[in-house]
Design a protein that fits this description.
With 325 residues, the chain is α/β, with parallel strands linked by helices. It folds into two domains: 36-84 and 286-323, Immunoglobulin-like; 89-284, 3-Layer(aba) Sandwich (Rossmann fold). The chain is built from seven helices and 15 strands. The chain has helices at 8-34, 105-117, 144-153, 162-172, 198-207, 242-259, 269-284; strands spanning 40-41, 46-54, 68-72, 75-77, 81-85, 89-96, 124-130, 135-136, 180-187, 211-217, 263-266, 286-291, 302-309, 314-318, 321-323. It has a six-stranded mixed beta sheet, sandwiched between helices. Helix 2 packs parallel to helix 7 (269-284) and helix 5 runs parallel beside helix 6 (242-259). It starts with 7 loop residues before the first helix and ends with a strand.
Length: 325
């Protein structure tokens, strides 16, 4: 049986069809990679990672789409997609090693080590330290043993450029290989040497797809603590030095609130362990809510987002807005 030779038109049609199939496969792969739990807006979907806890701070799992409502600029939006997520995450660890942490650095290191122990096996980490100047101890790595060695080698010294270090850490998150990104800050909250202002930091944080979790050691009053030795400040500021002590903790709390992370103030070892465990679980166990942007054509516009749950006595944590892209 003879086969008819393919005409140029048939050959061209076959080549075009093959190219279309290759492009479609590439697009499908990109869409699957982009469906991980990050907070981003494009012409098709806004994805919002959401953490829900009870009044004790325990993460609540098992909720469904009908348990949530999403408001974009105070307008209710139909939920188009809903998923639970425990995919690998890129985590920036910001460890305060400045002089004010002299008596609490050991406790902060313990929190960091415990956090690494419960992390997702596929997570990658980067360590930055706070002192007179920000310092990067490593690029993103999955080698937790090497990272723990780096943590152990840090020493308490220098002034405290906390805002500068967090600002730098957020910019370094662009090099992360995972689509889900979080920043964990371990500090006493004092800042006495930063060049950047709080407003500069908040602007960068709102533009980044990063949830910021903050654990404030030695924060607030030390009265009424139980379950371990108190975290005591190594330097007691004079009355006219109280500004940094008040502004720093407020900055950390505001940073977590606006980016959808959690904020903790711990006074003893028991509270520190609880905070680490809750932060780790919150990063790993999230709901991802997707909806279509109401005005995808207006690039650069700020959208206020609010996520609510119809479950009683729970706390809902989600990023409070985004810029249209």
């Amino acid at each position: 049986m003879k086969h008819r030779a393919m005409t140029p038109r048939v050959i061209l049609r076959t080549v075009c069809l093959a190219l279309l199939l290759v492009c479609a496969a590439g697009l499908l792969k990109a869409q699957r990679a982009d469906s991980a739990a990050t907070f981003r807006a494009n012409a098709q979907m806004v994805l919002v990672p959401v953490t829900v806890t009870d009044h004790n701070g325990k993460t609540i799992e098992g909720l469904r789409a009908e348990n949530f409502s999403v408001l974009d600029d105070q307008k209710l939006q139909p939920i188009m997609s809903f998923a639970t997520d425990d995919s690998p995450c890129s985590v920036g660890l910001v460890l305060d090693t400045s002089g004010s942490m002299r008596n609490t650095l050991g406790a902060a290191k313990d929190i960091a080590h415990a956090f690494l122990e419960i992390a997702n096996p596929g997570d990658e980490f980067q360590l930055l330290t706070v002192s007179t100047q920000p310092a990067v101890f490593s690029g993103f790595t999955t080698d937790k043993a090497a990272l723990e060695s780096e943590i152990d080698s840090t020493k308490s010294e220098g002034m405290t450029a906390l805002i500068d270090t967090v600002y730098f850490a957020l910019s370094r998150m662009r090099a992360a290989r995972r689509s889900r990104r979080a920043l964990l800050i371990l500090s006493d909250g004092i800042d006495n040497y930063s060049r950047y202002a709080q407003a500069d930091l908040m602007r960068v944080a709102l533009e980044a797809d990063v949830q910021v979790y903050t654990i404030l050691v030695n924060g607030g009053s030390t009265g009424g603590t139980t379950g371990g030795a108190l975290f005591r400040p190594s330097m007691v500021g004079k009355p006219w030095d109280r500004g940094p002590e008040q502004q720093g903790p407020e900055t950390l709390e505001k940073l977590s609130d606006k980016t959808g992370g959690l904020h903790f103030r711990v006074h003893n070892a028991t509270e520190a362990k609880q905070a680490m465990d809750r932060a780790g679980r919150a990063i790993r166990n999230q709901y991802v809510i997707g909806y279509q942007p109401p005005d995808p054509g207006q690039a650069g516009k700020w959208h206020r987002v609010r996520v609510k749950a119809n479950v009683q006595k729970v706390n809902v944590y989600a990023r409070n807005g985004y810029y249209s892209r």
